[in-house]
Write a structure and sequence with these properties.
Mean pLDDT: 90
CATH architecture of the largest domain: Alpha-Beta Barrel
Structural class: alpha/beta
Keywords: Coiled coil, Flavoprotein, FMN, Monooxygenase, Oxidoreductase
Distance between the termini: 6 Å
CATH topology of the largest domain: TIM Barrel
CATH superfamily of the largest domain: Aldolase class I
Number of helices: 11
Largest sheet: 8 strands, parallel
Helix content: 25-40%
GO molecular function: monooxygenase activity
Order of helices and strands: EEEHEHEHEHEHEEHEHEHEEHHH
Shape: globular
Number of domains: 2
Number of strands: 13
Strand content: 15-25%
CATH class of the largest domain: Alpha Beta
Protein name: Probable nitronate monooxygenase
């Protein structure tokens, strides 16, 4: 069976695969551009996107604003007409400025998670940028879409449903992760029904995209059979030649065994899935002093006086120093990656008819 294109209003991706946003410094222009060139949707992560800019240490916000344009322009050049957008955490400090900047540079899509992006529609008003919230429950989908309808008389252009097998921060309780995994299919069906109902009200089709543990073509076919219009994949693209992460970061994926991938407690108050290493063992027993605040999260999501370590600093360390002494986020299937490949080879595999 040939995969159908992913149609988001007037935006069309030839292959219904979105590359998930991975920060810090993992999904930048090279990876996002390559995915878009192959027909998927390439996503840049805005999380400290300007960490390589000279001014970053003195003015991280300014560096990030500059890098948003540089990285997007580069990705679009690589993409050769493909679809490129951004992932922005709703918990980001100066979140509104990030959204407006991404719209200003011409983002095709913006995907927002790490909190409910309640005012996202007004931030993209008058632009061609398509928007999607990330939700993990039917309750969240109902609340957010209902709020957008009431406040703005608008709805989502598409919705990303992130399941409990995803990497990075998760919208599930750590002590009930197995139960969440078992119940996810039913939850997904309920979310699809909710999204379809809002679509009918607005006389439009709202694609639902599933993320979390998607690895093979059979996984894609499975979620399409449940009613999804496409999938989002992140972990699968890390160990590619095009991925923007350093070789040491990619090697940590290659070296990981199934038992090395587990749940950690993030200082932002959410569980996260990462590769076990010296750093994840260290944070079990000690608090790591914060050397410098980089203003990465809004104040309600980060209290410097109480957090056990700085999430921004350790994610930066993962791509600038030795990843074994830093936090390396990864999806549940990261252990299946045993060698480096290319984005094109992955797409050739994923589009091979079963």
């Amino acid at each position: 069976m040939t995969l159908k294109p992913l149609v988001i209003d007037k935006l069309v991706a030839k292959i219904p695969v979105i590359q998930g946003g991975m920060g810090i410094g993992v999904s930048l222009a090279n990876l996002a551009g390559a995915v878009a060139r192959e027909g998927g949707i390439g996503i840049l992560s805005t999380a400290q996107i300007g960490y390589q800019e000279e001014m970053f240490e003195k003015s991280p916000l300014r560096a990030n604003m500059d890098a948003i344009k540089k990285q997007f322009d580069k990705a679009k050049e690589i993409a050769k007409g493909g679809v490129v957008g951004f992932n922005i955490m709703a918990a980001t400090f100066q979140y509104e400025r990030y959204v407006k900047r991404c719209v200003e540079v011409g983002a095709d899509v913006i995907i927002c998670g790490a909190g409910l992006p309640v005012n996202l529609p007004e931030l993209v008003e008058g632009s061609k940028t398509k928007i999607a919230p990330i939700v993990s429950s039917n309750k969240a989908a109902k609340v957010l879409l209902g709020l957008w309808k009431k406040r703005y008389n608008k709805t989502a252009d598409f919705v990303v449903v992130e399941g409990p097998k995803a990497g990075g921060h998760l919208g599930f309780k750590a002590d009930s992760m197995d139960e969440s995994i078992e119940n996810m299919d039913n939850e997904l069906k309920e979310i699809i029904a909710t999204v379809n109902a809002f679509g009918e009200e607005f006389n439009r089709t709202i694609p639902v995209i599933f993320a979390g543990g998607v690895y093979t073509r059979s996984d894609i076919d499975y979620y399409l059979s449940l009613g999804c219009s496409g999938v989002q994949m992140a972990t699968r693209f890390v160990v590619t030649e095009e991925c923007d992460a350093p070789e040491s970061y990619k090697q940590s994926y290659i070296d990981a065994k199934e038992g090395d991938i587990g749940i950690i407690k993030s200082p932002v108050g959410m569980p996260g899935r990462a590769i076990k290493n010296q750093f994840t063992e260290r944070i079990k027993h000690e608090t790591i002093p914060i050397e410098k605040c980089r203003n990465c999260l809004s104040y309600k999501h980060c209290d410097r006086k109480t957090i056990p370590y700085c999430i921004s600093q350790t994610l930066l360390n993962a791509v600038t120093k030795e990843p074994n002494h830093a936090l390396v986020f990864a999806g549940s299937n990261a252990y299946r990656i045993k060698e480096k490949t290319t984005v094109r080879k992955i797409f050739e595999e994923l589009t091979q008819a079963n």
